[in-house]
Write a structure and sequence with these properties.
The complex is a heterodimer of chains A (405) and B (418).
Chain A lengths: L11 H19 L5 H16 L4 H27 L3 H24 L11 H17 L7 H8 L13 H9 L4 H43 L3 H4 L4 H31 L17 H5 L4 H22 L5 H20 L3 H26 L8 H23 L1 H7 L1
Helix pairs in contact in A: 1-2, 2-3, 3-4, 3-5, 4-5, 8-10, 10-15, 12-13, 13-14, 14-15
Chain B lengths: L1 H24 L10 H8 L4 H5 L2 H8 L2 E5 L12 H7 L5 E5 L6 H10 L1 H4 L3 E5 L12 H7 L2 H10 L4 H12 L7 H11 L6 H21 L7 H9 L8 H15 L9 H7 L6 H4 L13 H14 L3 E6 L4 H7 L3 H16 L6 E3 L18 H16 L16 H5 L4
Parallel strand pairs in B: 1-2, 1-3, 3-4, 4-5
Classes of the chains: A mainly alpha (405), B mainly alpha (418).
């Protein structure tokens, strides 16, 4: 007998089953009640559907991972009640990142023959690291282990985010919205769900399934163009098409996750806010994969800057922020995966944001000389869009196929 | 009642959308009528949606289109291509081209059985490439490209506990595409084991079939390749009357113009692109000495086609295409092996009553029979027309088929006919 496995948000039947399962939760919330037991069973059932069947190895990896992180966090919370040493804190963070590091390194060492881990491990790691850091800060005091598990295993967002924060999640989970508020949530949820359908299954299909393969084929056929660099019109087309595909596919997915959260009375934060309308790179990162970039801002960039200043290694704030950007985006690059193009993608964005900062300072100093009008604003959006699309060309890995395969 | 109103405002449109989607896909309405112009374009488009789909093929066959089933040679559309000849002259038939690079008998079997209602007692032209009969047989990726869940659902719903159906089920299960859907995989396993499907499985398959048929009816005509325009342009090069001598002159002239820069009489564009203007040649010298088409699972897949055609009482003209003799000499293909292959194929055909065979396999040395290395073209198409035209335009004797399941066996697949 073949075994059942449903990949999140992939088929009409998934949505149908999901919405049927959600119905009791929705009726409960409508009447001001949260059926915690039902919700837990329902969530577990969907986790089994996602990580069960022929994906059972992933399911086992998930269980081991959760047990590990759970013990680690409990231990650190317990320790933090008595003491607060930096090296223990650093050790705890390193231990929290360890599974992800192992998972990312094994394919490299074993020539891609072994794959450990499970769908969504990187997103879970953001959550666990965040909790340890906030326990250290003292912002998380009353640690509720049941809620922590619920937060980690919240199935709408488990596979690819958006990355929620523990304290925000806790607030939503514990306060049930009043009827008018919940009705508004439902309205938003339906809107997000259908916008997601439009993004992922119509636009994502056009850009990703219909147009991307022929463009890729055409671009790879011209690998000898431009003195062996393979720069061709097809590659340019691929760049724009891939960027559109990346956005609509991921934004569509994020909308599904947010919609399902809203149905469950959890206001999972948005991931995208018209990123291609950004006027500069900094603004772009406030609009693109927002929960990720805010996580990096709060837990890498800010902390790195703060730590650097505290140690007084450098006095120049501008230099410090530049180094922080570099560290920030390098880690983001490594997080995407251990290939040259993800890392170059990180460095590229670090450089772009540093240059952007220099320009913004220059512009501020010479305000009276530099024109600012509709045309310059339009140009800045156009320029940002192209810089971003170029970075996605690096990110796509097609250059690797073009140059090294 | 304000909350109720707001609920309706939120979920009302969702409900309407779901109902509309159900009405569009899950009820057996089969889409809009297809115009004769669309059928014309679709029949020669070689589009995969047409091949995998159902509706256009059915409409075409009803409209006196004759299925020309084959593989990559069908896309060699010079002025003498069967579709051009049929378009130019009033012969009472048009061509429905089915097949492309990589499509072989197993795909064709599923395609033919899907058209069974329309194809009963009809005429078909079937081009068999000996190159299909490799030791591995049908490649899984190519099969997947031409496979559709609609074909599979249609097939499962009519499959019986016969040797052929059990064999077809086993073959389907060896292909990744055959196991990509849980429902189809489960049902196929049952057929392979000779067990009947459950009522609920039949119901689910029927429901799936309805959805897939509606998808096919709604979307398969979108974005067809515009070969029809090309065929009309080619037709302009042909003489006003359907005369063999005049046609032969056109074929020779066109071929001569297009084969100028290589010693194999291969079409220049092919030589330039596929053989890199000759730069690939050294690597290909004597590269085919070990090619062997005599032992292959393809023989049994081909038998599936034959038993299906016999069951439908179709009249079939089989064409064994030639192979470029100069290319054979260069690549060192073993001609003894080649002859034993065609002999084996012919034995499988004639012993079961398939007697309309146009064997061109020895004609590879005729000038301009081949458009490139293995694909028929120009004068070769015309030579084929010598048998196809009378076959399709004149009344044929009622066939008398005696199907023998031995040809499904491992023993036959591995047998060398000398």
């Amino acid at each position: 007998m073949p075994v059942i496995n449903l990949q999140p948000y992939s088929s009409p039947s998934y949505f149908l089953i999901l919405l049927l399962g959600l119905l009791p939760i929705m009726i409960g919330l409508y009447h001001g009640k949260r059926f915690r037991v039902y919700e837990t069973i329902f969530s577990l059932a969907f986790l089994v559907l996602t990580f069960g069947g022929d994906h059972w190895q992933q399911g086992v990896a998930l269980i081991i991972y959760i047990v590990y992180q759970f013990i680690l966090t409990i231990c650190y919370v317990h320790y933090r009640k008595q003491k607060n040493q930096t090296n223990i804190f650093v050790g705890a963070v390193l231990l929290a990142i360890l599974p992800l590091t192992v998972v990312k390194f094994t394919p490299l060492l074993a020539n891609g023959k072994i794959t450990l881990g499970f769908l969504g491990i990187s997103y879970l790691t953001f959550k666990t690291v965040q909790v340890i850091m906030e326990v250290r800060d003292g912002t998380i005091k009353d640690f509720d282990w049941k809620l922590y598990l619920h937060f980690l295993l919240f199935f709408p967002t488990i596979s690819s985010g958006p990355i929620d924060r523990y304290r925000r999640f806790k607030k939503d989970y514990e306060t049930i919205p009043d009827r008018a508020g919940y009705l508004e949530d439902l309205e938003k949820a339906v809107h997000y769900l259908f916008l997601g359908f439009f993004y992922k299954f119509i636009l994502g299909y056009l850009f990703g399934t219909l147009w991307l393969p022929p463009l890729q084929h055409w671009a790879l056929m011209q690998r000898h163009a431009f003195g062996g660099l393979g720069l061709s019109w097809a590659l340019l087309g691929y760049m724009y098409d891939y960027s559109m595909y990346l956005f609509f596919d991921f934004a569509g997915y994020s909308l599904f996750a947010i919609a399902i959260s809203y149905f469950m009375g959890i206001k999972t934060p948005p991931n995208f806010n018209k990123p291609f309308a950004a006027g500069n790179i900094k603004e772009f990162w406030n609009r693109w994969h927002m929960t990720l970039s805010f996580w990096f801002r709060d837990f890498i960039f800010m902390r790195f800057t703060f730590w650097f200043m505290k140690k007084r290694w450098l006095k120049n704030r501008i230099r410090i922020s530049q180094i922080a950007y570099l560290v920030n985006f390098l880690i983001m690059g490594f997080w995407h995966g251990l290939t040259w193009y993800y890392i170059v993608y990180g460095i590229f964005h670090a450089c772009a944001i540093i240059i952007n900062d220099i320009w913004l300072r220059y512009k501020k100093k010479h305000q009276d000389q530099i024109p600012s009008n509709k045309f310059t604003k339009g140009f800045s959006v156009f320029l940002t869009f192209n810089v971003v699309c170029f970075s996605f060309l690096i990110f796509s890995g097609i250059l690797d196929k073009l140059w090294f395969m | 009642m304000k909350a109720g109103k707001q609920l309706w405002r939120t979920f009302g449109p969702v409900l309407v959308a779901v109902l509309a989607a159900l009405a569009l896909f899950a009820t057996p309405w089969r889409g809009l009528k297809i115009s004769s112009q669309t059928v014309k374009e679709a029949a020669v488009s070689l589009s995969n949606n047409v091949y995998r789909g159902e509706k256009i093929k059915d409409v075409a066959v009803k409209d006196n289109y004759v299925p020309f089933i084959g593989s990559s040679e069908l896309s060699r559309m010079d002025a003498l291509h069967p579709s051009v000849l049929a378009a130019k002259y009033q012969r009472g038939y048009q061509t429905l081209l089915l097949g492309g690079p990589g499509s072989q008998s197993l795909n064709h079997y599923f395609t033919i059985q899907e058209m069974r209602t329309q194809l009963r007692n009809k005429k078909i032209v079937y081009v068999i490439s000996p190159q299909w009969f490799t030791p591995q047989g049908q490649r899984a990726d190519a099969f997947g490209y031409y496979y559709s869940a609609l074909q599979a659902a249609d097939w499962l719903l009519q499959a019986k506990n016969t040797k052929a159906d059990r064999y077809a089920a086993k073959r389907l299960l060896t292909m990744p595409s055959g196991t990509s859907s849980l429902l189809i995989e489960t049902a196929t396993k049952k057929i392979a084991a000779g067990r009947p499907l459950l009522m609920v499985e039949k119901l689910m398959l029927t429901q799936k079939q309805i959805i897939l048929k509606n998808e096919d009816a709604l979307f398969s005509t979108i974005d067809l390749d515009n070969n029809w325009q090309h065929i009309q342009n080619e037709a302009k090069k042909l003489p006003a009357t359907d005369n063999n001598k005049l046609l032969d002159q056109v074929a020779t002239t066109q071929a001569r113009q297009e084969t100028k820069d290589n010693q194999f009489d291969i079409k220049d564009s092919f030589f330039k692109k596929e053989l890199r203007g000759g730069r690939r040649l050294p690597r290909l010298k004597d590269s085919q000495t070990r090619f062997d088409y005599r032992r292959s699972p393809e023989y049994a897949d081909f038998q599936l086609v034959l038993q299906q055609l016999a069951a439908l009482n179709c009249q079939v003209e089989f064409v064994l295409p030639p192979i470029n003799q100069r290319w054979v000499d260069y690549t060192g293909l073993n001609m003894t092996m080649w002859r034993q292959t065609t002999k084996k194929i012919k034995q499988q055909l004639t012993s079961q009553g398939f007697t309309n065979i146009d064997d061109l396999s020895e004609d590879g040395n005729q000038s301009y029979y081949m458009e490139d290395t293995i694909h028929i073209g120009w004068r070769g198409w015309l030579r084929m027309d010598q048998s196809v035209k009378p076959f399709l335009t004149k009344q044929q004797a009622q066939p008398d088929y005696q199907i023998n399941d031995y040809y499904l066996s491992q023993a036959w697949q591995q047998k060398i006919v000398k």
